[in-house]
Amino acid sequence: MTDLHISFKVGDTTYVLPTRSIVQMESFEGATRVPGTPSYVIGLVQVRGAVVPVLDLRARFGLPPIDRTLDSRIVVVERSGRRVALLVDSARDILKIAASDFESPPDVVTKQASGFVSAIARVAEKLVMLVDCDRLIAEEDTHGHHDSQRN
Hints:
Elements: E1 2-10, E2 13-18, E3 22-27, E4 41-47, E5 50-56, H1 57-60, E6 73-79, E7 82-88, E8 90-98, H2 107-112, E9 117-123, E10 126-131, H3 133-141, H4 143-150
Parallel strand pairs: 2-10, 5-7
Antiparallel strand pairs: 1-2, 1-8, 3-6, 4-5, 6-7, 9-10
């Protein structure tokens, strides 16, 4: 079975999410900062009348911050009735990727990506990484635990 995936870049890496998880994509216009949230939660935005937290995937994946550009996008995902906006460096392409094209990532990728990458696939000679959306959102739910362990 072939699924449609939205591809997006964070740093030099291309990631994908199934289109069925995505509510919408739009340019990033800024977010309202919320005191006391982890550094990767950059604030709140309104999407279709709902207030949605924005997770900066650069910060979430441990990459240095960059200046936002016209390519910066938020990808709004919904899983288990929760909506979260993911801030990415750019998002454009829709890719058709068969479920059978995905394979488990090597252990080093799993460890480095903190479990956020659930599978990898080769698409037109490039590797793409499937983001584990449930884990990203679950992490956002329990954001106090991870940050407090680092201090």
